């Protein structure tokens, strides 16, 4: 199907983009176009105008800002997966980026587009919540920083206002000794999207887990933190038995899981428990 007709703008700065979004009610930002353009062709989204972010300088950088990395919203999945800085300072993010879709999707798709789209089957939201990242929204009144956990508000819905852009993603560094992370997913065989994805971070001190972060995506509208599992493993040695017992708690955290023709809710719940066990074990091994 063809999209409905729309205007097209190519701003040179974030300020100009925000002004265009304000001036044109019903307009949308265009990043890699890998989610928005299919939606427009299916007419599940019919923006009045597209504000193309592709020519804005400085929005795709990845830099070291002390204790965290600053990643521009227009950084592509490939740039993140291939970045030596991300691979050493925040390896779980590079690991997730490398698992997104296929080469074409990774070369065009952006972290900002993925997070703003808030697809429950996407990979970054799960990892970003596990990391406790901070997302910067820039609008007419300036910047506001949002914790990742409160950024995703519902299915395909975020805390961004229509005239705001996601501009920066700040992730804490986790690539230090004694800290390990792992992102694992069950891929949809056709698209590569996460039917279920699990992000685990484990900090070890004296052979025991001093920090555990466990987040599940793909089973509910937004990623959920498996708090009971995190608490159960904290202070314990990451043995196979302890990790299995903690992972069993993931099923309760999920509540009512989503289901579709490919994977029922019950199957998703089971996958989440299995992937949580594997991701926690992998993260703990990487922390040793
Ligand atoms: C075949 C296929 C397979 C895929 N497989 C996976 C997968 O395995 N895992 C995965 O996570 N994703 C997958 N994707 C999705 C892909 O990662 C997209 O690139 C991503 O979801 C959207 O990013 P984008 O840059 O293309 O955004 P766009 O499609 O340009 O935009 C998406 C939405 O975000 C808004 N937006 C974009 N940038 C901003 C911004 N800076 N501020 C505010 N709003 C913004 C747009 O207005 C639009 O509503 C797949 C896509 C395809 C086509």
Q: Can you walk me through this structure?
A:
With 288 residues, the protein is an alpha+beta fold. It is built from 13 helices and 14 strands. A five-stranded antiparallel β-sheet has the order 4-5-10-6-7. A four-stranded antiparallel β-sheet has the order 11-12-13-14, sandwiched between helices. β13 and β14 (224-225) form a beta hairpin. The protein starts with 6 loop residues before the first strand and ends with a helix. Bound molecules: flavin-adenine dinucleotide. Residues 28-36, 53, 73, 100-101, 105, 109-110, 112-114, 116-117, 119, 122-123, 160, 165-166, 191-193 line the site of flavin-adenine dinucleotide. Flavin-adenine dinucleotide (FAD) binds at residues 28-36, 53, 73, 100-101, 105, 109-110, 112-114, 116-117, 119, 122-123, 160, 165-166, 191-193.
The overall strand count is 14
Share of residues in strands: 25-35%
Identify the overall geometry. Answer: globular
Give the SSE string: EHEHEEEHHHHHHEEHEEEEEEEHHHH
Key descriptive features of the protein:
single chain; alpha+beta; Uridine Diphospho-n-acetylenolpyruvylglucosamine Reductase, domain 2; Uridine Diphospho-n-acetylenolpyruvylglucosamine Reductase, domain 3; Enolase-like, domain 1; 3 domains; five-stranded antiparallel sheet; four-stranded antiparallel sheet; 14 strands; 36% helix; binds flavin-adenine dinucleotide
């Amino acid at each position: 199907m063809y999209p409905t007709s729309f205007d097209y703008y190519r701003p040179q700065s974030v300020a100009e983009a925000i002004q265009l979004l304000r001036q044109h009610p019903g307009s949308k930002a265009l990043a890699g176009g890998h989610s928005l353009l299919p939606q427009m062709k299916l007419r599940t989204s019919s923006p009045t105008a597209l504000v193309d972010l592709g020519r804005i300088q400085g929005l795709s950088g990845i830099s070291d800002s002390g204790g965290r990395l600053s990643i521009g919203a227009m950084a592509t999945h490939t740039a993140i997966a291939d970045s030596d800085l991300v691979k050493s300072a925040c390896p779980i993010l590079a690991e997730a980026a490398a698992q997104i879709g296929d080469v074409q999707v990774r070369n065009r798709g952006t972290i900002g587009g993925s997070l703003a789209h808030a697809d429950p089957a996407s990979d970054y939201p799960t990892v970003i919540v596990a990391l406790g990242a901070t997302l910067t929204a820039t609008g007419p009144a300036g910047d506001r920083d949002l914790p990742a956990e409160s950024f995703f508000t519902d299915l395909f819905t975020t805390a961004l206002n229509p005239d705001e852009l996601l501009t920066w993603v700040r992730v804490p560094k986790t690539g230090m000794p004694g800290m390990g992370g792992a992102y694992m997913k069950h891929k949809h065989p056709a698209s590569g999207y996460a039917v279920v994805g699990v992000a685990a971070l484990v900090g070890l001190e004296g052979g025991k887990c001093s920090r555990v972060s466990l987040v599940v995506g793909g089973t509910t509208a937004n990623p959920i933190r498996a708090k009971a599992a995190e608490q159960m493993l904290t202070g314990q040695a990451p043995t196979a038995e302890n990790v299995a017992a903690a992972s069993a708690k993931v099923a309760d955290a999920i509540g009512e899981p989503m289901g579709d023709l490919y994977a029922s809710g019950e199957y998703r719940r089971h996958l989440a428990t299995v992937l949580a066990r594997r991701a926690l074990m992998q993260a703990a091994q990487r922390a040793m």
